[in-house]
Amino acid sequence: MASGVRTSGSNGLILSYVFDWVIIALIAITGALFSKLTPNRRPFSPTDPNIACPYVLKEKISNSTLILVGLVAPGLITAAVCLAFAPGRTASRGMSSSLFWRRKLWEWNTAWMGLGLALATSVLLVDAMKNLFGKPRPDLLARCDPDMANLQDFVVGGFGTATSGGLLVSWQICRQTDLSILNDGFASFPSGHSSFSWAGLTYLSLFLCSKFAIAIPYLLPAVYSSTTSAPSIPNHGSESTAGDNKDFAAARTSAQSRTLRSQAAAPPTYLLVVAFIPIAAAIYISSTRFSDFYHHGFDIIFGSLMGFLLAWGSFRWYHAPIRRGAGWSWGPRSTEKAWGIGMGVQSYAAEGEWTRGSEDIEHGVGAVQARHGTSSADTEV
User: Fold this and answer.
1) Residue 364 CB partners (closer than 8 Å, separation 6+)
2) Less CB within 10 Å around the terminal CB: N or C of the chain?
């Protein structure tokens, strides 16, 4: 009976991760729905040179290209890395085929969940903020085609005259008949291309750094204190001299230095180049939004920073720290904590006896049965 309960708990744990995918999908769908709404249209000056740039019909990076580079490519690369390299050197010759593939699939699942969370949140925040702020793009006047002959009919604020500038007019002054082009002219902040590309490509860079141990060499705290060998302090009693102390200090420093140096080494430089390629692609995509006159500089910087932070947060949500995680993602939640833990409990990780469900996901039912001395018949509900 206990085995049946545990199997049911495992099914509930799997269902909780399916629900996680549903939430990620709903976040993305909500963001897509926001993009269909009419944005706020901030009043503008028809003589403002900052919004008088030409309207470029053919973007250097189209939406389809952005999706290909920011979503499809990271998805394929992360999947390929998980299938080709996980579980790595931890796979012993005696590891069962079931356990081997479950570990691969678990790493693949967490890789895609982190990527999906980063990109879905980016879409939601960008489209919501575009509608809320309604900031004019640098090419707004070219899109708008303002009716300058009847300027005074549309003045809503500012000081000055039609010739001297300083007047603010409403969007109704525009003679543009295509509302999709006009409304898009009030969607400058923040840059969606920048946020999306930095979210997806920064996540890919962090993922590669994790899987291939691409990090600045470092020392674990206090590791060398218990392993450092040094000559013992000479026992000369009252005859100890300053020279003896200097010799001891020099010998101890030399021994510590040798031990410290052996704790870490720089990764191959080509791996650093590999990890930087996604960042370089994100920089290029962001730059095209400025050269195509679709965004102001601050819009691009803000969008890039937002995408970077979303990538970092989503990566750490599902993966252990790059330096100390040995390339692994976090393990599954405990069966009894699959849907929440409430107060008084610190971690969602499996603890003590109730680790069956999470082990079933990552290690396979067979491995757990062997450890607990049960058979497949015992696990049937």
Assistant:
1) 96, 98, 99, 102
2) N
